[in-house]
């Protein structure tokens, strides 16, 4: 049975890789028997499974050394799902991808380290960079029919965002998104029920609007909802399942054309930088 890291080791709160201004559900209680789902609706009807491959495959074959460490981790922390394991840049530490974070262990798994490693020469957060690399998704395989599209300028650059209608940080990032030029933004309404009980209802009403993009913009600009009951066919439950599958655990979460997934209400210059990098990486991958 898959368990969240917090439930597996019996912690109350863990420090994850840095998330800039994002809302996440409360961690699971130690006694919980089910995985801590970031946004699983309590009453959502089943949705058709998506074909998007989850970013949870061990790409590099395990050496006997890594396999031994993995076995010890799974023995020491029963029920914890190890998505990937490799040697870290720090001698004696092994990098473990679990749930929505990276943790580190020593060779005998006597110690588990939770937090970020920084390269002091480059001032780079190595943990954050590695998490983004390991957590890439297949952008072109996203079910874009479960999103609505907003096109700025020529729309040549592309990004997707998982957003909660009641999330204050989603409101903050919308101000940055409005200022982006030459970009196509695919928005997946993604209510986190545990934080915002009415967000799913708002998301359905926004989805049922004649112009979804305009309705979304109006809601975040003036808190004005469309005049409908939200009873049209909608992808809200499917998006919650998609987010769980892709390990989306915070709103807003952006996905760029190169598959990089970044949580948080980043400032405009940072988004521009990520768009430029993703665009260049995506072009190079097609050569």
Topology:
Layout (H helix, E strand, L loop, with lengths): L4 H5 L54 H13 L5 E6 L5 E6 L2 E6 L5 E3 L3 E2 L4 E2 H9 L13 E5 L4 E7 L4 H11 L4 E7 L9 H9 L4 H11 L13 H10 L7 E4 L4 E3 L4 H18 L2
Parallel strand pairs: 8-9
Antiparallel strand pairs: 1-2, 2-3, 3-4, 5-6, 7-9, 8-10, 10-11
What report would you give on this structure?
- This protein is α+β, with helices and mostly antiparallel strands and 287 residues long.
- The protein has 2 domains: 5-36 and 56-134, Nuclear Transport Factor 2, Chain: A, CATH 3.10.450.70; 139-285, Glutaredoxin (3-Layer(aba) Sandwich).
- It is built from 8 helices and 11 strands.
- The strands form 3 sheets. Strands 7-9-8-10-11 form a 5-stranded mixed beta sheet. Strands 1-2-3-4 form a 4-stranded antiparallel beta sheet, sandwiched between helices.
- The protein is globular.
- Mean pLDDT is 82; it is low at 9-20 and 26-50.
